[in-house]
Amino acid sequence: MQAARSLARSSRKPQKKPRRPLVVLLRAILFSVMASLLLVVLYAVALRQAWLGAETMGMVTAGIKVLCGALAGLLAHRATGNRFWLWGILGGMGYSLGAFLIFSALSQTFVLSLAIFSDLALSAAAGLFGVLILQMFK
């Protein structure tokens, strides 16, 4: 009888622990900042090999910010089943702040300017639209 009970218990699927939204948000920010670092290194290699010209720098950096902001929003969306738009915005803004801190630390200069606010707005919009597009296809 005891052996039958232990077999019956093992056939049940273990309950998933609920994800803590803050931990999911921080992971999303970290992953998107790492993706941004990788894309910047790839772009630097392309510049060094003269595959791309210096005139593409503005477009490519804006594209990297948009892609990684949307990625952060999409990954932060997994934090909760409701209010997906809020987590998309928070993921995008968190990415922007995280990228600013990491790249400022790497360049050893912390320059605060109004351009940071435009980066925040751009990343927040990218995170929001990334999550909205995901919801459209669900």
How would you describe this structure to a colleague?
- With 138 residues, the protein is mainly alpha-helical.
- The protein has one domain (20-137).
- The protein is built from five helices and no strands.
- The protein has helices at 2-10, 21-48, 57-77, 84-107, 115-137.
- Helix 2 (21-48) packs antiparallel against helix 3, helix 3 (57-77) packs across helix 4 and helix 4 (84-107) packs antiparallel against helix 5.
- The longest helix has 28 residues, at 21-48.
- It is elongated, with a radius of gyration of 20 Å.
- The mean pLDDT is 85.
Short description:
The chain is mainly α. It has helices spanning 2-10, 21-48, 57-77, 84-107, 115-137.
